[in-house]
Write a structure and sequence with these properties.
This protein is an alpha+beta fold. The protein has helices at 48-67, 74-93, 133-138, 163-178, and strands at residues 36-40, 96-101, 104-109, 115-120, 124-130, 140-147, 154-161.
């Protein structure tokens, strides 16, 4: 390897020229890569009512088909309504999600028009868990992440499965980021 400054022969792998002191290998900045740690959606239990209603409408269509033959024109209407309720519920569940990366917590809302809120892991003040009695029985809960940057800014992960594990994952990611 030759020195670009003075042209002297330098030892392989040397960082500086032994003759003129010029840098031989350009220092590369450390590449900081953000990577995904966790993606969370509300639990299906949060949508139990429309799911039960959709299934009940479809079962009602089956009942009309077999036991009330004079009303058979209602069957396709009931089946389509039940199917639309189920599909609408699945789509509605996707309208909000939360992502935890190595650098930030991201809340995404909306289907057609979307909104994102970002909270840097270094700005997290506290991580709290809120569980009502019914949620506790089902293993659900809310995780509230408060920002140190503003007293009013917080991200609430509502109706998530295993909130203790999610809160711990956020705490660990924050500690790793601060280290």
């Amino acid at each position: 390897m030759r020195c670009p400054q003075c042209g002297a022969e330098a030892a392989q792998g040397a960082a500086f020229c032994s003759r003129c002191g010029a840098r031989l290998i350009a220092a590369r900045p450390a590449a900081v890569r953000e990577f995904a740690l966790l993606r969370v959606w509300p639990s299906w239990w949060e949508f139990a009512r429309p799911i039960i209603l959709g299934v009940a409408v479809i079962i009602g269509g089956i009942y009309v088909l077999f036991f009330r033959q004079p009303d058979w024109p209602l069957v396709p209407i009931l089946w389509i309504a039940g199917f639309l309720l189920l599909v609408g519920t699945a789509v509605s569940r996707r309208r909000i999600s939360w992502s935890l990366t190595s650098e930030r917590l991201i809340e995404r809302t909306g289907l057609l028009a979307s909104r994102e809120r970002h909270m840097e892991l270094a700005d997290i003040r506290s991580v709290e868990i809120d569980q009502r009695a019914g949620q506790k029985l089902l293993g659900l809960g809310d995780v509230i992440v408060a920002s140190a940057a503003s007293a009013e800014f917080s991200i609430r992960l509502t109706g998530v499965h295993d909130p203790h594990a999610i809160a711990e994952k956020i705490r660990q990611a924050r500690l790793k980021r601060l280290a």
